[in-house]
Write a structure and sequence with these properties.
The chain has helices at residues 52-56, 62-69, 72-92, 110-123, 144-149, 152-161, 182-195; strands spanning 2-7, 13-18, 49-50, 196-197. The chain is mainly alpha-helical. InterPro entries: PGBD (IPR029526).
Length: 210
């Protein structure tokens, strides 16, 4: 508390009392203090490692491990949604687009989708600056396997219509930013839980969020 002097209209000096917080008495919370605290030690009782079908798998082939997570049911759902989205896009085109490459579309099959996904995985191992270069026939740049298993135009048109959920059934008030990939994401998360038990110490690297 401190006193403030002021002058009235007639020049008389009056005295009033004004309450102000005492600046010097405020606690300083910006300093570090040592406290005697220990986190609760929760015992880890799980057995880390492969579980379920992953533990029973005897094969060492990469495709067999992949199929533990990417099931036939998931692939069929991707095929159904991709074919549906292609039909929706083509039906929405006007007459001026009748010569568009999209009109060469034909429904994708299970075999084609597996080949398509395999090539996508392969692009993660063999890096090239542009997608078209995987079908390049130049001796210095060629990767013949791509041309051998799927024509470039077919790969590109599947890539163009690749879809995981039906846009027409999305609720108007949907706030899920991952709606378009939700079926695939939920399936994979479920499979990860079914196939592997992590150890007690887990490090989540920022690279997982990119």
């Amino acid at each position: 508390m401190r006193q403030v002097h002021r002058h009235g209209a007639a020049g008389d000096q009056t005295r009033s009392t004004v309450n102000h917080p005492a600046e010097d008495t405020e606690p300083d919370d910006s300093e570090w203090h040592e406290i005697n605290w220990q986190p609760k030690n929760i015992p880890f009782t799980e057995n880390p490692g492969p579980i379920g079908d992953a533990a029973a798998l005897e094969s060492e082939q990469p495709v067999d491990f992949t199929e533990l997570f990417i099931s036939d049911a998931l692939i069929q759902n991707i095929i159904d949604q991709t074919n549906l989205y292609a039909d929706q896009c083509i039906q929405a085109m006007d007459d001026t687009s009748k010569h568009a490459r999209c009109h060469a579309w034909k429904p994708v099959t299970v075999s084609e989708m597996k080949t398509f996904m395999g090539l996508l995985f392969l692009t993660g191992i063999i890096h090239k600056p542009e997608l078209e270069m995987y079908w390049c026939t130049d001796d210095m740049l060629a990767t013949p396997y791509f041309n051998k298993v799927m024509p470039r135009n077919r790969f590109e048109i599947i890539w163009r219509f690749l879809h995981f959920s039906d846009n027409t059934t999305r609720p108007d008030n949907c706030t899920d930013r991952l709606y378009k990939i939700r079926p695939v994401l939920d399936h994979l998360v479920s499979k990860f839980r079914e196939m592997y038990q992590p150890k007690s110490n887990i490090c989540i690297d920022e690279g997982l969020f990119l």
